[in-house]
Hints:
CATH architecture of the largest domain: Orthogonal Bundle
CATH superfamily of the largest domain: SLC41 divalent cation transporters, integral membrane domain
Distance between the termini: 83 Å
Structural class: alpha/beta
Amino acid sequence: MVEALSREPVEDKSVGLDAQIRAEVLAALEDGDRDRLRALLGDIHVADFADLFEQLSHDQRRDVIEALGSDLDPELLSELHGPVLAEVLDLIGPREAAAALTQLDTDDAVYVLNEFDEDQQREVLAEMEADDRLLLQSGLAYPEDSAGRLMDRDVVAVPDFWSIGRILQYLRSEAELPDRFFEIVVIDGERRPVGTVPLDRMLRTNADLPVGMIMEAAGHLVPVDMDQEEVAFLFQQYHLVNAVVVDRDGRLAGVITGDDIADVIEQEVEEDAMLLGGVAETDIQESVWTTTRSRFAWLFVNLGTAFLASAVIGLFDGAIEKIVALAVLMPIVASMGGNAATQTLTVAVRTIATRELTTANARRVVTKEALVGAINGAVFALIVGAIGFAWFGDWELGAVFAVAMVINMVAAALAGVLVPITLDRFGVDPAIASGVFVTTVTDIVGFLAFLGLAALLLL
Length: 459
C-alpha cells in the first residue's frame, strides 16, 4: 500500500520551488545519495515536487521513484500530466498505482485514470477492490470535461429533519468522512438537495435547532453532464465556494469545490492560448513525432492561405516589376494588419469565453473595434506616409501607402472580432480556427489594397 508523506513546506518563504532546493535535489541524484534525496523531497510541497519531477529526465524520474519507494505521495499523481503521468505508472506498476488512487479524492482519482490509455486503465482497475473500482468506473462514464468528472463523491449529507446537535454527534463519530470539507449538504427523503449549511454557521447555532432553520436554500445546482466551462462560469459569476452536483433525477451526486474550478479556469485559459497558436496543448513533454503530427494540420492550412495571399500578389506582378518600392513596402501593410487583428482577436476570444461578448452587445463591440482600427489606421497612415515619401521621394507612393494602411487596419479590427463571433454562432470554438481566417483576411486585404491602389494611381 502506498502511504502518503506530508509535503507541507518547512518554511513558507516564497511561492514555487526554491532554486537552491532544485540544485540540491539534482546534486543528490547525480551523487546517488538516496537518503539526502528523500530528506529534500520530504520538505517540498507536492505541487512543487510535481513541477520538479516534470523537469527531470526519464532516468532521474526512475531514481526518484526508487528512492521514495512506498513513501511516494499519492497526491503527486494528481499534479502530473500526460506522458509524465503514464511514465510514473510504468515505473510504480499497476498495483501501487491502484493503491495510490484509492487514497485520492474521487475527482482526482478519475482525472488520473483518464490520463491513462485503455490498457493501463484496465490494469489499474483490476488491482482495486470491487467498491473502489465501481466508483471510479462510474466517474469515467461521465462525458470528459463535464461536472461528473470534476465532482468529488465524498460528500457530507444529512437529512433535513436532523438537529444541529445530532449532526455534530454524527461528525464526531463517523469515520468515513472527507479529509476536508467546508459545508454540509441537506437532503430530503429522496436524497434531493434542499440546502447547504456552512460549518461556521452550524458551530455558532444552538444544538437543539433543526438544520432546516439555518440552512441556505439549495441554489445553482449543477447537473452531472454540465460542461466544465459552464461550471466555472457559475463559480465566477456567483462567487461560489462549493457547488452541489445532481444526477438526471435531481438526486445528490457529489460536490465541486473551488480548487477544482481553479484548475479548470487555468486549463481553459491555457487551452485557448494554445489553440490560438495552432497547437492543441502544451506539448513540451510529448515525443517529437506526436508534437510534429499535432502541429502539422494547422500549418498545412496556413500554407494554403499563404498561397492564396501569394496569388493576390501575383495579380500585380507587372506593377511590382515597374515599381520596386512596392515589394519593399507591402510586407509592412500586411504585418501591421496582422498585429492589429491579433490584438482584437485575443480580446474577442477571451470575452466570448467569459460571456462578456454576446449577441446583446455584439453590434456595439464591432462598431467600437472598427473605430479603434480607423483611428489607429489614420495615425499610422500619417507615419508611414511620411516614411514612404522620405524613403523613396515620391509623395504619391507615400499616399498609397497611407491609404492602404487605413484600409487594412480597419479590416483587421473587423476580422478580429467578426470571425470569432461568427464561428461561435455556428458552434465552432473560436480559439481553434480564428487565427487562420483572420490572418488570411489581413494578408489579402493588405496586399489587395496596397497593390491595387498602386496599380490604379501610380501606373
